[in-house]
Amino acid sequence: MDLPATSLKAPAARLASLDVVRGVAVLGILLLNMVSFGLPEAAYLNPRAYGGWHGMDLAAWALNFVLFDGKMRGLFSFLFGASMLLVIERAEANGESAASVHYRRMVWLLAFGLAHLWLVWHGDILTHYALVGMLAFGLRALPTERLLALGVLLIGFSILLFAAVPIAVHQGHDLAALNQTMGMPAPAEIARELALFRGDYPAILRARLDEHLTTPLPMLWFYGPETLAYMLFGMAGLKSGMLRGEWPRARYRRWLRACWGIALPAYAALAVYIVLAQFSLFSVALASWTLTAPLRPPTIAGWACLILLLARPGGVLTERLAAAGRMAFTNYLLTSLICTTLFYGYGLGWFGHLSRWQLYPVVLAIWAMILLWSKPWLARFRFGPFEWLWRSLARGSRQRLRGAAAS
């Protein structure tokens, strides 16, 4: 995997380094989202709930748990914070109001996110990013050390929030609701969910509006501190030169060894504990929900280091990943449109018909499509379709679309 031949320290290549990491993140996040597209809700955290928990299905869960679950979302959040800071810096360099540019972008992102959440798929993350991004603006000027320190404090607060879940299980509180999201729902509940998502669009839309009309607000309280921490880490990564690709390769290697040398064995131990506990509600709540929170940041940082270490000048794959990253907004929304069409009843109706491991050939096919189409599109157009629309709305004028994207 190689970066274009320009030096990583050149301004254009610094953006290229972010695009490559973002390209990996937008592909990687589909590994986890695919479970939500194709299986009942509880199966996301608990394979025993539905979709298989032996053999290849167990292997698929374990690989995702150790390497990808929460890490790709976190990597995307890192990059959102870094990109947000870049946009602010460019606005200031151009003599524009950074606050006006930033909040126009976040307001329109919120509009896109709500449309995605209510009309397309309940697993939307854009609404959450827009709300947290509005909060992050006031912290942009903090020095690197303070960004990191505040991020660590927010992670600590998140751990306390998440710890309420295994405590509730231990005390026997809210067991019915928790079983529905991370335990083993009753067969009647599974049957209801299968019937719903194998049904028509109006029924799915009504259920989504009933259940998710106001979810962005509790999600902001429960996940907001962790997401804000990741965005601050991304800003720190940009200011320190890490995400710009400016560090010496030896430093990336040291960070990768330190981060993954601690986090991955701990993740593996938690996976073994959950399997030995046969995916009991308490084991999932404790090990998958709470104890992973302090392990995610070093794992995400390790991913960023690994991707930048693998970057080499002139690589075909890297150019494809960079193009996918430049069109991450479009590719994220496109995967939702494709997957809901494949799995929901108003499309092919695959929901609940594939086991966990059988979802991943679908992932590979969509990855291939994204890598194949993003680069040719950017050879002819300056932005991805949804990037262009977002940019035009945020700037209040129709932006020029035709013409190759800038290097």
End-to-end separation in angstroms reads 18 Å
Tell me, what's the shape?
A: globular
Number-wise, the strands total: 0
The overall pLDDT, averaged over residues, is 93
Walk me through what this model shows:
The protein has 407 residues and is mostly helical. 72% of the residues lie in helices and 0% in strands. The longest helix is centred in the first third of the chain and has 28 residues, at 11-38.
Which features characterize this protein?
disordered N terminus; 407 residues; mainly alpha; 17 helices; globular; 72% helix; single chain
Q: Short summary of the structure?
A:
This protein is mostly helical. It contains 17 helices and no strands. Helix 1 runs antiparallel to helix 3 and helix 4 packs across helix 17.
How is this fold's topology laid out?
Elements: H1 11-38, H2 55-67, H3 71-93, H4 98-119, H5 126-136, H6 144-171, H7 175-182, H8 187-197, H9 201-212, H10 216-240, H11 249-276, H12 281-290, H13 296-310, H14 316-326, H15 328-343, H16 360-380, H17 385-395
